[in-house]
Amino acid sequence: MRKKLRVFPICIVILLTLFLKPVPATACSCAKEPSAEEGFSRSQAVFSGEVTRIKDNNGLFGGYGKTVIFKVKETWKGINETEVAIATGSGGGDCGIEFVVGKEYLVYASVSDMYGDKSLTSVICDPTKELGIAAEDIDILGQGQVLPHNVKPIDNGKKTALISGGVVFIAGLLGIFLWYWMRRNKK
């Protein structure tokens, strides 16, 4: 029976390691900011928009950096929704851009898994900048497309957190049940 009790903590550790993901280390260094033409050609999405929300992705179950939600004003490439989520780092050497809620930006984004799941990502090595200082880029890009304002709300991650929390809760209950069952059968 003692052997069974020794197995219980090992099972709990194994279950927890299945749900916890290590955060990979990243460092960022850019030789020079690309031109608007270079940025446009290597990006999957180019748009201007206002930051409406910023969500930290640092969590128990992996992910890091930030998700920045934009209300799209004008698009040049790859965007057909009036609200879009962009992943970026938290700053401090991880390539993240310090976006500010309420400010407008010209965003160059590419699909990447740099900050977790594959998503549109913009980093300091992209020519993303505040809209107020992007006149030269906009002259080069030309007139963008203004989208009709039919905003589809973007999932803010609460559903994923609830599912993950529920799985851990159920695993904990299962662990307690197994512990209780093993103690009862010991007698």
TrEMBL record:
Residues 1-27 form the signal peptide. It comes from the Bacteria. Keywords: Membrane, Signal, Transmembrane, Transmembrane helix. The chain crosses the membrane at residues 161-181. This is Tissue inhibitor of metalloproteinase. It comes from Sporosarcina psychrophila. The lineage of its organism: Bacteria, Bacillati, Bacillota, Bacilli, Bacillales.
